[in-house]
Design brief:
The chain has 648 residues and is of the alpha+beta class. It contains eight helices and 34 strands. It starts with a helix and ends with a strand.
Length: 648
């Protein structure tokens, strides 16, 4: 009975091993050519091949059915490229042999009919009583009862199994750590490449800034010389006309005059001709044929080397001796003599200098620097020309596509973007032809365009959100807005500063709040105002100019402090400033809803905005005001007539 029980126990153990260690979880059958994934889970080769087909269309990856980790399939051998599981294979072979002999397991192979009751510790096999007493091959060997041997062997195998499990866990941990190291490598490489590209772009921007500054100087000097040359030509032409007149008169008298005419006119004509024989053309100054360029201001403007920018971006420490200098050698460009500044040690180009040069270059050649490119803005260093006069140069009728437009923004490509009380936000070409609408855009008052050409559009009345659309008119995000008391508030006006921050005026229903947001819409801060903000714009140094419901026009910083009043032009009967627009050079354009209805121009001098002139008087109140990207054209909306007036 004991022997039968022992045999049954062995069969039960074999069955348990089959079920837990030798069965594939995919087909629930005994392993056939088992293959181990890197996670050490093993499956039939054919089952794993079929499973991989469901993981990817190109059969390039396989997901472990148990732990869900994803692995790339070896390209050449496929699933068979994964290693075979030797432990499972050996165990399976051992159990197969054991099953084949299960009917005779307890009987001695050497002594037929004898039951195995002992275990030879030297040979590691079962033995009968004759083996221990008579068989010479077991002479001197140590024997123990078979049941005791099975207990010892089972215990030993159990311990080895636990050790193997621990080793397996170590392999899994090592694989995970290796994969994490590879992931860290990928991330660090991407970060380094991005830093290198940023350094290159920054260096090129600063080099372009220096080039623009020199170009601007060249254009300005050329214009001055051209004026002097034209004055010389004009004087020569006047002298030549006088010479020809006297010559023709003398010739006519000689050819057609009577004797008395010759005698009477001789004194004056001979004196005049005598003087003309001594006349000499006014010589042109040969120096006007070339220009001498001056170093950009300040006089020592140095650029950091690309190497230094890379070291800064990549956090690499370099010795001061590794700094390079930018030497500007004298060169001739189409007859222009360029005098270079003296070289000195490298220092970063300040935003103040960069802004001054970009503004100057843009004023001369707008195509050199489109408005859409983001530049660090500071207090304007170049004043707009006070003598410049804005003259009307055209009109665009917006109907039937846009009825009663209100807000306006000009895209860097010249497109005209309009909001309306009765139409969705609509995009027209620079010639006024309809292009498309921004679907789902509910604004009717204001709109602004970011440096990255995204549209910032306030929600319609009663909707406390502003919306960000990409350059194709696709909605990117919607951001809720709340006043200083955290009550939902509908945005009335929006503006974008030089860094891309979004400024929102919350002024409907006597709400009195200005909120500042990141370019993605995340709230930075907000502050209360003494009156409801109507419309707002940003200055070149990122201050705010806001028209309020109490008919004041104020300039303040983005925290609401240091506010000052911009006074109305002299002689105004009714001052009700509404739409405002500020150029990158500090020119301020203000639409007056009062009397007279007009657009006025201001300029910032000594930190104070002073009135310059009236650009236009209108029969209807001026609404949206916007500048073109090159700031050479001004667009003013006439809401009642559905017209956009254009000034140059």
């Amino acid at each position: 009975m004991a022997e039968a029980g022992l045999n049954d126990s062995s069969l039960s153990l074999a069955s348990t091993i089959d079920r837990h260690f030798l069965e594939c979880v995919i087909c629930s059958d005994i392993f056939n050519d088992p293959r181990a994934l890197p996670c050490m889970h093993h499956f039939c080769c054919e089952c794993l091949e079929n499973w991989a087909k469901s993981c990817s269309n190109d059969n390039s990856i396989v997901s472990c059915p148990l732990c869900k980790n994803i692995y790339r399939i070896p390209e050449e051998e496929g699933i068979k490229g994964f290693p075979g599981h030797f432990l499972v294979t050996n165990l399976q072979d051992t159990l197969d042999k054991a099953k084949q002999k299960k009917s005779s397991t307890n009987y001695c192979e050497n002594h037929k009919g004898k039951k195995c009751e002992y275990f030879c510790e030297n040979c590691g096999c079962a033995a009968c009583s004759d083996c221990s007493a008579l068989d010479p091959s077991h002479r001197g060997h140590s024997f123990i009862r078979l049941k005791e041997a099975l207990i010892r062997l089972s215990s030993s195998m159990e311990k080895l199994t636990k050790i193997v499990e621990n080793v397996e866990e170590k392999y899994k941990t090592a694989i995970q750590q290796t994969q994490q190291v590879k992931q860290n490598l990928d991330q660090d490489t991407d970060a380094k490449i991005q830093a290198i590209d940023e350094a290159r772009n920054e260096h090129m921007q600063q080099v372009d800034t220096l080039v623009r500054a020199y170009k601007h100087d060249a254009y300005s000097k050329k214009e001055q010389n051209v004026q002097k040359i034209e004055q010389t030509v004009e004087k020569l032409q006047v002298d030549l006309a006088s010479l020809r007149s006297s010559h023709e008169l003398a010739s006519n008298v000689i050819e057609s005059g009577s004797d008395s005419d010759i005698i009477s006119r001789y004194p004056s004509l001979s004196s005049s001709l005598e003087q003309l024989t001594k006349a000499q053309p006014t010589p042109v100054d040969s120096k006007l044929g070339e220009i001498k360029l001056e170093p950009p201001q300040p006089t020592s403007m140095d650029l950091p080397s690309l190497e230094q920018l890379l070291c800064n971006k990549l956090h690499i420490t370099v010795a001061p001796t590794q700094h390079t200098q930018v030497s500007h050698q004298t060169s001739n460009l189409s007859g222009f003599t360029a005098r270079s500044p003296q070289s000195s040690t490298i220092k970063p180009l300040s935003a103040f200098t960069a802004n001054a040069q970009v503004n100057a270059a843009t004023a001369q050649d707008p195509s050199l620097f489109p408005r859409s490119q983001s530049v660090q803005s500071t207090i304007p260093t170049t004043k707009p020309s006070i003598d410049k006069k804005w003259k009307e140069c055209g009109q665009i009728k917006t109907t039937p596509k846009v009825k009663h437009p209100k807000g306006i923004a000009i895209h860097p490509n010249g497109d005209i973007v309009l909001t309306s009380l009765s139409s969705p936000v609509t995009v027209l070409s620079r010639n006024g032809d309809f292009k498309h609408v921004i679907k789902g855009s509910p604004s009717d008052i204001d709109i602004s365009i970011t440096p990255s050409n995204q549209y910032i559009i306030p929600g319609e009345y009663g909707n406390n959100e502003f919306h960000i659309y990409d350059s194709q008119g696709v909605l990117v995000s919607s951001t809720p807005t709340y006043d200083i008391n955290n009550q939902p508030s509908t945005p009335r006006s929006v503006a974008v500063d030089s860094t891309g921050r979004i400024i929102v005026g919350l002024g409907w229903n006597d709400q009195k709040t200005v909120s500042i947001h990141q370019p993605d819409g995340t709230l930075i801060s907000k502050y209360g105002t003494t009156s409801s903000p109507r419309m707002l714009t940003c200055t070149p140094d990122d201050k705010l100019i806001i028209s309020f419901a109490d008919h004041t026009l104020q300039v303040m910083d983005q925290s609401g402090h240091n506010a000052s009043i911009i006074h109305p032009p002299p002689g105004i009967q009714s001052w009700r400033p509404y739409h405002v627009c500020c150029s990158k050079q500090g020119e301020l354009f203000v639409g007056n809803y009062g009397n007279p209805k007009a657009v006025y121009r201001y300029v910032c001098t000594g930190g104070e905005y002073k009135y310059l002139d009236c650009i236009t008087r209108m029969y209807n109140s001026p609404d949206g005001i916007a500048l073109s990207a090159d700031e050479q054209k001004l667009f003013v909306v006439d809401w009642k007539l559905s017209i956009v007036n254009i000034f140059r």
